[in-house]
Design a protein that fits this description.
Keywords: Membrane, Signal, Transmembrane, Transmembrane helix
Distance between the termini: 38 Å
Shape: elongated
Number of helices: 8
Structural class: mainly alpha
Helix content: 55-70%
Largest sheet: none
Protein name: DUF2637 domain-containing protein
Number of strands: 0
Number of domains: 2
Low-confidence stretches: 170-174
Radius of gyration: 31 Å
Strand content: under 5%
């Protein structure tokens, strides 16, 4: 992931020159506008990286941004960068096809990276959680000890046995595997959302939050509906 962040920052550094050329125009180095134009693209890039970092964190914990302006802000930042990089290259006095192609392709690649980096981090987190679930499933049979029957002692002859109703053994409570706190929180939110939607909460809803086998999903579901 560090490599993706590095190349994203590198691409944004390249687009800074195109944005500066668009904003500075014919201004020289003695004009404050020429110097101020260098700060616009770093500001856009900083806002974009902060948004992507926060999005990657919440997606890794199974939480969606859940607001239409989230995507709009990213598109405005990257679309503005693309526009300001391409327009100066269309000037007939400085037109070069190679330069136009580079200034067009790099912002598009940066936009693609901005969209996939949070998804990659979320999928990586999902793979790690699946590994934990597989390990828990693999270890669970070993925890079940085989009960070896022991010889019963010789019964004593009571003087006056009083018949008593047989005791009904208590049904053991099956509990699901221990999960990280943030996964439990995501499962509870899914349970509450199902209740708000007027539908039943099922083991399939558990598997949408964390990829576990059917038996483990059933056990986790039983914990949630009894909690």
């Amino acid at each position: 992931m560090a490599g993706l962040w590095f190349f994203l920052a590198l691409g944004l550094s390249f687009t800074t020159t195109g944005v500066q050329a668009f904003l500075a125009g014919d201004a020289g180095t003695g004009d404050p506008v020429w110097w101020a134009a260098w700060t616009v693209e770093p500001m856009f890039a900083g806002l974009l990286i902060l948004l992507l970092n926060f999005e990657a964190v919440i997606l890794a914990h199974g939480v969606e941004p859940g607001h239409h302006w989230w995507t709009r802000i990213k598109r405005v930042l990257l679309g503005t960068t693309l526009f300001m990089n391409v327009i100066p290259q269309l000037d007939p006095a400085r037109f070069q096809l190679g330069s136009l192609a580079v200034h067009l392709i790099i912002p598009v690649v940066v936009y693609g990276l901005a969209e996939v980096i949070p998804v990659i981090q979320a999928r990586s987190r999902q793979v790690v959680m699946q590994g934990y679930a597989d390990a828990a499933e693999h270890d669970s049979p070993a925890e079940t000890k085989k009960v070896v029957p022991q010889p019963a002692p010789a019964p004593a002859t009571p003087e006056a046995p009083t018949p008593t109703p047989p005791a009904v053994p208590a049904e053991p409570v099956k509990r699901g595997p221990r999960l990280p706190a943030h996964v439990v929180d995501a499962l509870k939110r899914a349970r509450d959302q199902a209740a708000e939607d007027g539908r039943g909460f099922a083991p399939a809803d558990v598997q949408q939050v964390v990829k576990v086998p059917d038996a483990m999903a059933t056990a986790i579901h039983a914990d949630l509906i009894t909690t």
